[in-house]
Amino acid sequence: MPSAPAAARLSLNTATVKAQWTLAQAIEGCARHGIRGIAPWRDKIAEMGVKQAASAIKANGLEVSGLCRGGFFTAKDWRDDNRRAIEEAHAIGAQCLVLVVGGLPPESKDLAAARERVKEGIAAILPEARQAGVPLAIEPLHPMQAADRACINTLEQALDLCDALGEGIGVAVDVYHVWWDPKLEQQIRRAGGKRILAYHICDWLVPTRDLLNDRGMMGDGVIDLPRIRAWVEAAGYGGLHEVEIFSERVWWRRDADEVLAVCKERHRAT
Amino acid sequence: MPSAPAAARLSLNTATVKAQWTLAQAIEGCARHGIRGIAPWRDKIAEMGVKQAASAIKANGLEVSGLCRGGFFTAKDWRDDNRRAIEEAHAIGAQCLVLVVGGLPPESKDLAAARERVKEGIAAILPEARQAGVPLAIEPLHPMQAADRACINTLEQALDLCDALGEGIGVAVDVYHVWWDPKLEQQIRRAGGKRILAYHICDWLVPTRDLLNDRGMMGDGVIDLPRIRAWVEAAGYGGLHEVEIFSERVWWRRDADEVLAVCKERHRAT
Questions:
Q1: Nearest residue to A176 (alpha-carbon basis) of B156, B100, B144, B101
Q2: pLDDT at residue B2 greater than cutoff 50
Q3: DSSP letter at A102?
Q4: Which end of chain A is more exposed for a tag (fewer CB within 10 A), N or C?
Q5: Nearest chain B Cα to A116, which residue?
Q6: What does the pLDDT average to over B211-223?
Q7: CA dihedral defined by B87, B89, B90, B95, rounded to 10 degrees?
Q8: Other C-beta atoms within 10 Å of B207: how many?
Q9: pTM for the predicted model, two decimal places
Q10: Which chain B residue has its CA at the smallest distance from A109's CA?
């Protein structure tokens, strides 16, 4: 099979247009714009219903580059919530379930203990994920989100965890979270095509005015996207490029069809 | 549980009260509150004059835990600016010159090249620093400041640089920048008492509302300060504990004498 042109590699993470569109609208939008992949968030799936979402995705011929998200192993209901997430990922044919692992438990400052809990939590759900044929993708989050969202903060740390856990688990490489890492190239090479389950793109704005919702469109920031993509591809990843932009100030305020058009255009250069 | 730190270990980084006090006031304030050390920023020294600053510090019996700052090797005038910084550090008897190394040059996305430039810049000024008897302290900055302030973002990266550069250089360990690092304990041990030239304290607030100026007072955030201090001391560091709090919303708005009193009180528990 000839290698797909870059444009056909695009996938839309629904967070990018979450303020404007329901999941049904995002699915139709992807089809209308010739975007081949989609990565829904579970709140959007819950609104639409899993069965309806699965049918609409299938009917429109979309691939599901990932389901966002499982994880938060430091929360009380983590066990059931992750079980449901695996079921949903299976139902919509997601290529992976993205794990945002959770930060410090309330009142705790014990990061080492939180990390141990995460490891145990992933180990506990991994057999079910394997059985369902749903690869788990640990997403290392930016260190600025270590306290409140994820205590796995580097690719090296995530890969050490993968090595300890065995088959059926890998990483989601999101440029926003890892672009700064002096060991990025080395750890992408270490991960290889087997462990890299997803590749997320956006950009880092200077200045960044919010720790969560001020991500940039590809090309508007300082991340050397072609270089990181080359590393990821050289490592053996041949999957989709998922655009995930949390942008309260800019992209959530634009017409969603315009956002998709800009994503496509910018993706060609990255 | 490690024993409580001696009150006599405290040092005031003038940034903590920069909105309220001149350097002369900060020097008097330290003396009045029985705080043994001070770490001035160069803009405050420029206002007061180097000689006057040096005399006032000496007259009040203060130790200088560091001068902030040299670095910014990706800026145009880096050579002269660092030469002056070394002279000033020598003049005020600073125990080290803290290097905030600089981020990406304007219009650049080449982080690897910026890091190479930093290495060359430090190598260029190191002989003068050695001659002046001023140890250089590379301060790894939080990855969220990689683009605009410092492209050295982990202790491991800083120590690799130290190993490459030899004598007369070490690191400033600022808990705000490194608390999240899964390799923190390991790298503090690696650094040892020889390479750890400064220890800076404050806290990480949840939520953090600004990437630069929303640091917390010790005890108000999620950093396990006693644990990190124990690691630093076990590694062989026996120097001052420098409080550096950039806080536009809280501490820069309070009466500076009150800020110093709170610093002393909170330091006892950290």
A1: B144
A2: no
A3: B
A4: N
A5: B182
A6: 97
A7: -160
A8: 10
A9: 0.96
A10: B222
- Of how many residues is chain B composed? 270
The shortest CB-CB distance from A182 to any of B157, B181, B223 is to: B157
Mention every residue, 6+ apart, whose C-beta is less than 8 A from residue B220. B203, B205
Average pLDDT, chain A: 96
Per DSSP, which regions of A32-78 are E strands?
A: 37-39, 63-64, 67-71
Record the tokens describing residue A240, joined without a space.
């989709």
Q: Would you say A133 and A207 are in contact if contact means Cβ atoms under 8 Å apart? A: no
Q: How confident is the model at residue B74 (pLDDT cuts 50, 70, 90)?
A: confident
Query: Which residues of chain A are within 8 Å of residue B207 when distances are taken between CB atoms?
Result: 148, 211
pLDDT digits (tens, 9 = 90+) for B159-216: 999 999 999 999 999 999 999 999 999 999 999 999 999 999 999 999 999 999 999 9
pLDDT interval class at A163 (50, 70, 90): very high
Tokens standing for residue B6? 């001696």
- pLDDT over 50 at A205, yes or no: yes
User: How many C-beta atoms lie closer than 10 Å to residue A194's C-beta?
Assistant: 12
Residues B185, B186, B190: CA angle, nearest 5 degrees: 115
Residue A75 and residue A118: Cα distance in Å, rounded?
A: 10
User: What is the identity of the amino acid at B217?
Assistant: M
User: Tens of pLDDT along B95-138?
Assistant: 999 999 999 999 999 999 999 999 999 999 999 999 999 999 99
Nearest to A146 by CA among B229, B200, B222: B222
Which two tokens mark A177? 């979270």
Whether residue A208 and residue B154 make contact (CB cut-off 8 A), yes or no, is no
Tabulate helix, strand, coil % of chain B (nearest 5).
45, 15, 35
| CA B75 to each of CA B104, B114, B139, B150: distance values in angstroms, whole numbers, following the listed order | 9, 11, 17, 12
pLDDT band at B1 (very low <50, low <70, confident <90, very high): very low
Distance from CA of A123 to the nearest CA of B (A): 19
Closest chain A residue to B203, measured at CA: A109
Name the residue facing B206 among A115, A147, A179 (closest C-beta).
A147
Rounded Cα–Cα distance for residues A182 and A132 (Å): 36
A150 close to A140: Cβ distance less than 8 angstroms = yes
Tokens of A70: 């499982």
Q: Give the angle subtended at the CA of B230 by the CAs of B228 and B231, to the nearest 5°.
A: 65
Q: What is the largest CA-CA distance in chain B?
A: 49
Query: Among residues A144, A264, A265, A252, which one has the least CA distance to residue A204?
Result: A144
d(CA B101, CA B81): 12
φ, ψ of residue B12 in degrees (nearest 5): -100, 115
Chain centre distance of CA B17? 15
d(CA A78, CA A102): 10
Cα maximum dimension of chain A = 54
ipTM over 0.90? The verdict is yes
